[in-house]
Design a protein that fits this description.
The chain has 364 residues and is of the alpha/beta class. The chain has 14 helices and 17 strands. The chain binds magnesium ion.
């Protein structure tokens, strides 16, 4: 199965409600689509969101990295030389993890098709379905309560609440939500680097004292501040998950060696795809550190690849793959079935993506 062409396109999918975090506010998913064509007619699909504020990757940068570096590295090569092309892809340009992730997943899709096996089976095959949380954006407390109750009515029992814009107000936001939702609702929070280490300890222990029962906090401090993260992890009653601090297997190793976080968040767009995500999962297995799998604002192609990883590996115990359910429509054919919080992986060979509704992808 030889690679003949890498086609790029763009897709736009509106969100149900604007997505607001401590770092940004957006109202639609605007992603780059990758199709890797082969000489036997098989097509592998990939996707990357331009999340410049987190990854540094813009639409132009994703397209440029693929056109200028990955096409010449991959076209003409045989998908069966899988380990070699994975190493070549990761080595053909520095950083650019979103572009690498989009191409990496398209290659896994083809490799699974070549051997007629779904990718989650190829990587471990632990389970067929997973349960995701859903994100509640940062807003006024009454609006956040409305969004939380709407999620409960849609069947979610785990909420991921964005906080971190105004430290003093976060406790009021969480109190309002905790009082409104059913008692057994899991609430995890994401500060998206919004606090200083000392603020984080004060706010988190304040939440604990008020009985807000926070499952864990994501990335309380700046991404580069591993010592600050460790400071919070050692002093907070609320467990700490490293997200923006982990962009590579090396970052994950360092955090686990330091004991700087209780949990690690794997995202394909940060680590450059499934090949490196598997290394993080394996390191976490060795350290006994449970992982979450997350996504950016992504449509179904790339989140579907993350679903395969989550269904493959038992060390991934927390699921934050709500990209597709935050969208108001799904123009992508095939792949996992997203039925609100329950996600069921496809048993088709590869990643199971079949293409798009006609006219939804604008090819470059
Ligand atoms: Mg996060």
């Amino acid at each position: 199965m030889k690679i003949t062409e890498i086609r790029l396109g763009r897709i736009s999918v509106p969100l149900r409600v604007p997505f607001k975090t401590a770092l940004r506010s957006v109202d639609s998913v605007e992603d780059v689509i990758v199709e890797i064509h082969t000489d036997n007619g098989a097509v592998g699909y990939g996707e990357a969101p331009p999340t410049g504020v987190i990854t540094g990757d813009t639409t132009g940068a994703i397209i440029g990295a693929i056109q200028d570096h990955m096409v010449k590295t991959l076209v003409g090569r045989d998908v069966d030389d899988f380990e070699d092309i994975m190493i070549a892809l990761q080595g053909c340009i520095l950083k650019n993890t979103s572009a690498k992730a989009a191409v990496d997943m398209a290659l896994w899709d083809l490799y699974g098709q070549l051997y007629k096996i779904p990718v989650y089976k190829l990587m471990g095959g632990a389970r067929k379905s997973i349960v995701t949380d859903i994100t509640i954006s940062v807003n006024e407390p009454d609006e956040m309560v409305r969004d939380a109750m709407n999620a409960i009515q849609r069947g979610y029992d785990c909420l991921k609440v964005k906080v971190g814009k105004e430290p003093e107000k976060d406790i009021a936001r969480l109190s309002a939500i905790r009082q409104a939702v059913p008692k057994d609702t899991l609430i995890r929070i994401d500060a998206n680097q919004g606090w200083t280490p000392k603020e984080a300890v004060r706010i988190l222990n304040g939440m604990q004292e008020r009985g807000l029962d926070i499952e864990f906090v994501e990335q309380p401090v700046k991404a580069h501040d591993f010592e600050g993260l460790k400071y919070v992890t050692e002093r907070s009653y609320v467990p700490v998950l490293a997200d923006e601090s982990v962009f590579s297997p090396e970052d994950a190793m360092k955090i686990m060696q330091m004991g700087a976080a209780d949990l690690i968040n794997i995202k394909l767009m940060k680590c450059g795809g499934l090949y490196n995500a598997l290394k993080i999962a394996s390191a976490a297995e060795v350290y006994g550190v449970e992982c979450m799998i997350g996504c950016m604002l992504e449509a179904k192609i790339s989140v579907n690849a993350a679903v395969h990883l989550a269904c493959a590996k038992k060390i991934i115990t927390k699921i934050d793959l709500d990209g597709p359910v935050l969208c108001s429509e799904d123009p992508i054919l095939g792949g996992a079935v997203f039925n609100e919080q329950l996600i069921t992986v496809s048993d088709e060979p590869g990643l199971g993506i079949k293409g798009f509704e006609s006219g939804r992808v604008t090819y470059l």
